[in-house]
């Protein structure tokens, strides 16, 4: 982003910034508004927050709307939230799909909760998988939506015992499942070597694995999978197997990473995954924005340095928050530093 404007967003005063193309360091005391600034950028891309499911919370107290605008290359992106309603703008016109802005502004967030990627249920890993695949294959989003639609229709038919509808939707589901699966596998195959290199270097371990579980036994065609499950699906009233049950398995010597690694090692493993994804996007010609919120509190200076080193020189634009700039490695690459104080963001010279 060459320009970023934030209006009426959380506690932030109206702000206009000209961010550095590579590194932006945002410092300030607790409650100053550092996370809110990252949240504004995230909202512009993903049309949601990483802190709340209720976008109305983003509207500053006393403000009528929260609005974020960015200029990036030839594109001008905007997202505004008024109570109950989000409006997206792209190059002077309304944008009607949620992914229109994300396609032009891929963001990756790293914060103190990133370990959830390892410890939570498969849903959060499927989201990681879906965003990663979407940025490599822009048609993927529509494909995944078609799969979800077919799944809902088939499940509805299974629930009420409507055999005709079930038989009509099953082949559609099979076609979409195969295509979703192939796209995700391509993403994982591209991601794995980058991830494993980082994971090996940072953890000093050789036997780490990243596997894609496709939501069914690997060797069977989807037609067979659904056929074998048919009676079970009919009895339960839903589809048991498919890409909606996919997962990413991280392990060491076949033992789940959550059991086989220390907390610190788990953090590094997840950071390796997030950074590998950013790296992959930038190798594909995208310019990702990496939001790192309070990571100095989570990673020791040496590892933080390594992480920043890894993305320096890429087209990646980093926003990094810290309460105290002194906690950051001393030899950070050149960038723009900002001080946030009671919602006012000022560039430091
Ligand atoms: N909708 C809102 N309007 C105005 N202020 C808000 C709104 N929502 C939250 N706040 C306030 O905004 C302040 C900034 O919070 P934020 O999390 O951005 O700070 P921070 O600098 O990241 O702090 P920390 O270092 O403690 O994480 C908080 O004091 C919070 O109470």
Automatic annotation (TrEMBL):
Sequence similarity: Belongs to the RecF family.
GO-annotated molecular function: ATP binding; single-stranded DNA binding
Domain of life: Bacteria
GO biological process: DNA replication; DNA synthesis involved in DNA repair; double-strand break repair; SOS response
Predominant place of localization: cytoplasm
Binding site for ATP: 28-35
Gene3D superfamilies membership: P-loop containing nucleotide triphosphate hydrolases (3.40.50.300), RecF/RecN/SMC, N-terminal domain (1.20.1050.90)
Subcellular location: Cytoplasm
Record-annotated RecF/RecN/SMC N-terminal domain positions: 2-324
NCBIfam families per record: recf
Gene Ontology CC annotation, any one: cytoplasm
Protein name according to UniProt: DNA replication and repair protein RecF
InterPro entries found in the cross-reference section: DNA-binding_RecF, DNA-binding_RecF_CS, P-loop_NTPase, RecF/RecN/SMC_N, RecF_2
Pfam families per the UniProt record, alphabetical: SMC_N (PF02463)
Primary role: The RecF protein is involved in DNA metabolism; it is required for DNA replication and normal SOS inducibility. RecF binds preferentially to single-stranded, linear DNA. It also seems to bind ATP.
Keywords: ATP-binding, Cytoplasm, DNA damage, DNA repair, DNA replication, DNA-binding, Nucleotide-binding, SOS response
Keyword DNA damage: yes
């Amino acid at each position: 982003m060459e320009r970023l404007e934030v209006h009426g967003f959380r506690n932030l005063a109206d702000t206009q910034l000209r961010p550095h193309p590579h590194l932006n360091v945002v410092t300030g005391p607790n409650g100053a508004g550092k996370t809110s600034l990252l949240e504004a950028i995230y909202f512009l891309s993903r049309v949601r927050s990483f802190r709340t499911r209720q976008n109305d919370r983003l509207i500053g107290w006393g403000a009528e709307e929260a609005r974020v605008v960015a200029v990036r290359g030839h594109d001008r992106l905007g997202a505004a939230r008024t109570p109950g309603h989000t409006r997206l703008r792209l190059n002077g016109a309304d944008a009607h799909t949620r992914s229109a802005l994300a396609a032009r502004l891929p963001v990756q967030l790293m914060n103190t909760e990133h370990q959830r990627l390892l410890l939570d249920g498969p849903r959060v890993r499927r989201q990681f998988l879906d965003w990663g695949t979407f940025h490599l294959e822009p048609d993927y989003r529509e494909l995944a939506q078609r799969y979800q639609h077919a799944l809902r229709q088939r499940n509805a038919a299974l629930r009420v015992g409507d055999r005709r509808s079930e038989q009509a939707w099953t082949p559609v589901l099979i076609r979409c499942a195969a295509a979703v699966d192939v796209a995700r596998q391509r993403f994982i195959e591209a991601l794995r070597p980058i991830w494993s290199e980082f994971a090996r270097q940072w953890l000093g371990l050789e036997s780490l694995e990243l596997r894609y579980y496709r939501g069914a036994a690997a060797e069977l065609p989807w037609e067979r999978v659904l056929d074998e499950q048919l009676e079970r699906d009919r009895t339960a009233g839903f589809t048991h197997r498919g890409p909606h049950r996919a997962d990413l398995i991280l392990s060491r010597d076949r033992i789940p990473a959550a059991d086989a690694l220390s907390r610190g090692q788990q953090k590094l493993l997840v950071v390796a995954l997030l950074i590998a994804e950013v790296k992959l996007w930038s190798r594909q010609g995208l310019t990702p924005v990496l939001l790192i919120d309070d990571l100095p509190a989570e990673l020791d200076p040496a590892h933080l340095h390594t992480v920043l080193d890894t993305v320096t020189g890429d087209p990646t634009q980093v926003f990094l928050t810290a309460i105290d700039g002194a906690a950051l490695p001393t030899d950070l690459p050149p960038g723009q530093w900002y001080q946030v104080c009671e919602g006012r963001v000022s560039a430091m010279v």
